[in-house]
Amino acid sequence: MISKEFEQFLNIYDKAGGNKNAFRDKGIANLLVHKNKVLNVNSIKGVTLKSKRRKDGIAVNLAVHKGVKVENPVHFCFGVLPKIGRQEIDIDILVEDNAQVEIVAHCIFPNAVKVVHKMDANIKIGDNARFKYQEIHYHGEFGGIKVIPKAKVSVGEGSIYDNVFSLLEGKVGFLDFDYEVNCCEKSTANMLVKTYGKGEDKIKILEKVNLSGERARSLIKTRIVLKDKARAEVIGETYGNAPYARGHVDCIEILNGTEAVAKAIPIVSVKDERAKVTHEAAIGSVDKRQLETLMARGLEEEEAIDTIVRGILK
Amino acid sequence: MLKIENLTLEKDGRQILNGINLSVNKGEIYALLGRNGTGKTSLAYAVMGCKGYEAGEGKIIFERNEITRLSISQRAKLGITLAWQKPAVFEGLTVEEYLKCKNNDTNVHGLLSIVGMSSIYLNRMVDDKLSGGERKRIELASVMAMKPKLAILDEIDSGIDAPSLPFIRKTVQKMRDNGITIILISHSEDTLNICDRASLIGAGQVLKTAYPKIVKEFFTKHCKQCNHLYEIDWKEIKYDF
User: Fold this and answer.
1) How many CB pairs lie under 8 A apart between chains A and B?
2) pTM, whole model, 2 decimals?
3) pLDDT tens-place string over residues A242-290
4) Burial of residue B112, with CB atoms counted within 10 A of its CB: 0-12 exposed, 13-18 middle, 19 or more buried
């Protein structure tokens, strides 16, 4: 029974742009979860992956041991295939000192009419470690889904944390993204959220970075395109609390149409006179010069807008 | 190939073009000269059909068809294109994607080679990390990718490093040799030397059309001596078309 579900799930994962062979390769750490059912889990040397089934989801523990540099990205796939369902993922990630790992997580909800996908993550990155988390969503066209990813991330001394969240396929539904990152001395946090709101999608993004250690650095980048009656509110907060901390908040929201509404609220605060935090936010329609340039190369207006939007969301 | 008859253009309550008449022949490099703010770029935008630069009165005729009210895309489909003085930057779009935006079969390696750039640039983004010279060369490559009949090049040689200039001029000549008619806006005397004919624009009018050397002499004699173009009594000057 699980085998059939596993194959069915893998096929949709494949269509969503995932590499389904990753879930058959014993050399790649992976976790495949449908609703609250673990269809596949694989740990590898240096990477411990444990999961526990719960009523509406699962609890996951991932540990990358001290000094381990994981060659292939760890693959996660979460999803709900029926029209109605709920999936809650509680995830604890520990990347120990000097370790290095990348996670590619696909979240697939192709038929959602009334689905909730909630993730609560606690991520601890040790010292001089590197952790990249890439989350790619694949939604259907109905938009009946609530996506609620929340994370608390601690980045150790000299470590690098990269996070990319992209929700470009299908309708967003309701997105409530809330990440808080604390950066220790000489650490770096790079966060990018990109999404394309259509229909009556509602997007709420809160990204907060505390630059607590000396010479800590961060970049919060948000790229949103809205059309139809979609709405978005983006709050990017950076607090420069330590000497020579450097942070930047960069938000671009493009409105394609007259009924979409976008809001950007950058909050930058500095407690130490040697720290520096900057921000830039641009909300508006597609840039006229870009549009006219592509039209002067022979593209129709709609084709030109698509090309520009694809670039922004790439 | 291109004929402009009594073209007027008003913008923000100001008369920018005041009855422009000119005619560009097929296969020539035609220079538009004049001081800043005299209407050269506005004329280029009006010929391309840019928003906000719609003609008031007069006609723009391209290959015997009136195009005065056509959109940018429609004019581009007829074979007209424009390289902006400050080319747009595109976040997330690679040079290769940009050059192939209309035609996926475009020989991107060949185009970059013509403008003196290596294929390494194909994976670079067309964003503000490119230098002014790099961006302008890519702009020329993008114009050529379109295989236009008429290319309007607005100060394609300005703001770029000296070593890049010969490449730019050679590229423009190669475009002409490949049958592309070119309208060139430039302030450079060296660039003027590659042009076949020139018109001097002043106060939104064509003041003189002749061989570039003659127009340049006229420009030097009359335009550089005054404080302001509008102070010249143009009726006193003999036109030599």
Assistant:
1) 65
2) 0.81
3) 999 999 999 999 998 889 999 999 999 999 999 999 999 889 888 999 9
4) buried
Q: Structural domain boundaries of chain B?
A: 2-236
Residue A125, class by beta-carbon neighbours within 10 Å (0-12 exposed, 13-18 middle, 19+ buried)?
Answer: buried
Summarised one tens digit per residue, pLDDT across range A13-61 is 888 788 888 898 999 999 999 999 999 999 999 999 999 999 999 999 9
ipTM: 0.89
* Preferred mutation among B41, B51, B73, B85 to probe A, highest tally of A CBs within 10 A: B73
How many angstroms separate the CA atoms of A153 and A178, rounded? 11
CATH class of B2-236: alpha beta
State which amino acid sits at residue B155. Answer: E
Select the residue of B77, B89, B92 nearest A314 (Cβ to Cβ). Answer: B92
Residue B166, number of CB atoms within 10 A of its CB: 11
Give the A window 86-115 contacts with B, CB below 8 Å.
none
Cβ-Cβ contacts under 8 Å, B85 against chain A: none
Task: Give the sign of the dihedral formed by CA B68, CA B69, CA B71, CA B74.
Answer: negative
Best mutation target, A252, A297, A309, A314, to test chain B (most B CBs within 10 A): A297
How many angstroms away from the CA of B82 is the closest CA of chain A? Answer: 6
